[in-house]
Specification:
Domain Copper amine oxidase N2-terminal: 30-118
CATH architecture of the largest domain: Distorted Sandwich
Cofactor: Cu cation
Largest sheet: 11 strands, antiparallel
Active site: 338, 426
Radius of gyration: 27 Å
Keywords: Copper, Disulfide bond, Metal-binding, Oxidoreductase, Signal, TPQ
Structural class: mainly beta
Helix content: 10-25%
CATH topology of the largest domain: Beta-galactosidase, Chain A, domain 5
Strand order of the largest sheet: 1-17-18-21-22-23-34-31-30-28-29
EC number: 1.4.3.-
Strand content: 35-45%
Distance between the termini: 39 Å
Length: 699
């Protein structure tokens, strides 16, 4: 349910209270709504009561919506659109949950019917015993694991030899990855690294370098230990980022504080349960403990026909692959799959009103299942707000008429849906930005803390060999690494039957002959477009930096009056790095999809997670690259875009101790989808009619 933070904004509060009251009175949930606390409780009850999983203890690692079949959801959405005008609810679809639980050293998959949460039932059960990989780590088992080192005598001695007080030590759990061997015989283990938290909140800046522990997560015991090398622990001074701890305030002038003023209120944003309606957009906001924000049924209103036309069926972040580039024993395995190993939704903490999101934001809370299966409430997990940053939607000044100057300008107001994931040391700000022009912009912003290595170096001149990173402070190396954020986007451009088109820019010589495209002029060359329609998945893999051109998703059955196919095109805005690891390197085999930014596959409800369902200790035997290798047909089919936004991160001193935000983005932009500019007739704003960002003088 959405809630609004405000200061003396009573009219807006009353509006949203009315909307929330209406939503809460609905007779049944939307079929794509995330599981409610009552439904999560019902899932727990059914699983624990089922004779299909008798072993104990039983721990819940994933509980999420088992979404209905896509045709059923689309039929429901069509009925809902038709009946909403008559204030009648369409018939409900079954509510089901997909569960991954651990018991008896095996991963159990269960599907649970919670349509009637008072009498849930287990519909199916399977055991993932022989296949590679394990489910997401729970928060509780990580907390249990990090409680082990202070009681482990060899570690206590290692800490003593370094002159560190045990009370200042804090440890964290790191997945081990996979580096060959028989995956089915592997144990569910993780590595633990420890840090000195005394004197700073930035404990990542003070690693106890050289010490590695392996913990068996099923036995909850340390099973391997090594203290290989001893380096100085970096000092605490200059590492804290907290207000009042980071030093004196900045010297010199600072920008005045800003506030958001909406003279006409924010009644343009309507929230009904998990459905958001704003300007010409309507979409559903959901939540998943692995993916985080899940966006569904995004449709845009055609200004000429008054008809809503679907653009996106379902979209979410499928995986975040972060490999570090130091091959030594304490670092080689740091090749994180943040969504599959940790869970993006589990590490999405409450957003801070007024700083993470502006004062005009509305908020969605989230619920997920804890290790014991009970619902956990996370407040202010997603925010929704209108943004006006002084940008221009369109404009033109015409000075060609003698004695007359014509200027037309329309401001660009957008709607942002935001979640922040604090996955260990990094913070990912994940924005979905909806524009009245029909575009959807996806923005990934990185900030947070660098993961650093203890070193004897105190000056860059001392480094004579490859240090695999940048010396950002005394005894502190920030290691080179990558960030690959992979989106799963089930596009439905004006329907489910779509094709993937590659419009490549090709240079031509001027032949001088009009029959071959030339002309009898001095011009020697020009470029034109070579159109290719992808037939199979092999054609749907594209390195977007290899050739200039446009990549489009079109509906061949829907055309404009000019005869052009209705479509949306992919527009990259930087952050197009692809992995350069060797193809036979083990981390690359687990995340082989990261070598190419664009993959297009036919829709399959079970194909959600780019590295496969079981990411922890996965081997690359499941996932996007394996599915795509089937080379299925993608022309005139229901197709899915997988897009990876990538960054090679060479750290610099300005990134320490906390990194200023660095962003990358891409956009889905209408291309012959409308008959003309859809915001041509946008209202001319009167003075003060739009949202304003005001700077207030503080005296």
């Amino acid at each position: 349910m959405a809630r609004t933070q405000f200061a003396a904004m009573l009219p807006l509060f009353l509006l949203l209270a009315a909307l929330c009251g209406t939503a809460s009175g609905a007779s049944h949930p939307h079929p794509l709504d995330p599981l409610s606390p009552a439904e999560i409780t019902a899932v727990r009850s059914a699983v624990l009561a089922s004779p299909l999983v008798a072993a104990r203890p039983l721990t819940f690692h994933y509980v999420g919506l088992d979404e209905p079949d896509k045709p059923d959801v689309l039929a429901y959405a069509a009925r809902h659109s038709a009946t909403r005008r008559r204030m009648v609810e369409p018939d409900a679809l079954p509510r089901r949950a997909f569960v991954i639980a651990r018991a008896g050293r095996a991963s159990h998959e269960l599907r649970v019917d919670v349509t009637n949460s008072s009498s849930p039932s287990v519909l199916s059960h399977a055991v993932h015993a022989a296949g590679p990989g394990f489910p997401t780590l729970t928060l509780e088992e990580q907390f249990d694991a990090v409680a082990l080192p202070p009681k482990y005598a060899p570690f206590v001695e290692s800490v003593r030899r370094r002159g560190v007080a045990m009370d200042d030590v804090l440890c964290a759990v790191f997945p081990v990855g996979w580096f060959g061997g028989e995956a089915s015989a592997s144990k569910r283990v993780a590595k633990m690294l420890c840090f000195v938290a005394g004197g700073t909140a930035n404990f990542y800046a003070r690693p106890i370098e050289g010490v590695t522990m392996v913990v068996d997560l099923d036995e909850m015991a340390i099973v391997e230990y090594r203290d290989r090398v001893r380096y100085p622990v970096p000092k605490a001074e200059g590492t804290d980022y907290r207000a009042g701890k980071a030093g004196a305030p900045l010297a010199g002038p600072e920008p005045a504080p800003g506030v958001v003023v909406q003279p006409e209120g924010s009644s343009g944003v309507h929230i009904d349960g998990h459905v958001v309606r704003w300007a010409n957009w309507e979409f559903h906001v959901g939540f998943d403990m692995r993916a985080g924000t899940v966006m569904s049924l995004a449709s845009v209103l055609d200004p000429d026909t008054g008809v809503r036309r679907r653009v996106l069926y379902r979209g979410f972040v499928s995986e975040v692959f972060v490999p570090y580039m130091d091959p030594v024993e304490e670092w080689y395995y740091r090749t994180f799959l943040d969504a599959g190993e940790y869970g993006l939704g589990l590490w999405a903490f409450p957003l801070q009103p007024g700083t993470d999101c502006p004062s005009n934001a509305a908020y969605f809370d989230g619920y997920y299942a804890g290790q014991d299966g009970k619902p956990v409430h996370n407040e202010n997990m997603i925010c929704v707000f209108e943004r006006y940053a002084g940008d221009v939607a369109w404009r033109h000044t015409e000075a060609g008429f003698p004695g007359q100057l014509i200027t037309e300008v329309r401001p660009d107001v957008t709607l942002v849906v935001r979640m922040v994931v604090s996955a260990g040391n990094y913070d990912y700000i994940l924005d979905w930005e909806f524009k009245t022009s029909g575009s959807i912009r996806f923005v990934v912003s990185l900030t947070g803390l660098l993961e650093v290595k203890g070193t004897p170096y105190t000056h860059a001149d001392q480094i004579k060999a490859d240090a695999h990173g940048t010396l950002v402070a005394e005894n502190t190396l920030a290691i080179y690494h990558d960030h690959y954020v992979t989106y799963h986007l089930d596009l439905d451009v004006d329907g489910t039957t779509n094709s993937f088109v590659k419009n490549f820019i090709t240079t031509k010589r001027n032949s001088g002959n009009p029959t071959t495209g030339g002309a009898p002029t001095p011009r020697r060359s020009y470029w034109t477009v070579r159109r290719e329609v992808a037939e199979t998945e092999a054609d749907g893999r594209v390195d977007i930096d290899s050739k200039p051109g446009d990549l489009l998703f079109v509906n061949p059955g829907k055309k404009t009056r000019m005869g052009n196919e209705a479509g949306y095109r992919l527009v990259s805005s930087g952050a197009t790095a692809a992995s350069v690891l060797a193809a036979d390197d083990f981390p690359q085999r687990r995340a082989s999809y990261s070598r190419t930014q664009v993959w297009v596959t036919p829709y399959n409800r079970s194909e959600k997670w780019a590295p496969g369902v079981y990411a922890d200790q996965s081997t690359g035997e499941d996932g996007l690259a394996v599915w795509s290798a089937r080379n299925r047909r993608i022309r005139n089919e229901d197709i899915v875009l997988w897009y990876t936004l990538g960054l090679h991160h060479i750290p610099y001193q300005e990134d320490f101790p906390v990194m200023p935000t660095l962003s990358g983005a891409f956009e889905l932009r209408p291309s012959n989808f409308f008959e003309r500019n859809p915001i041509l007739r946008a209202r001319v704003p009167s003075d003060g009619a739009h949202s304003q960002n005001c700077s207030c003088s503080v005296r």
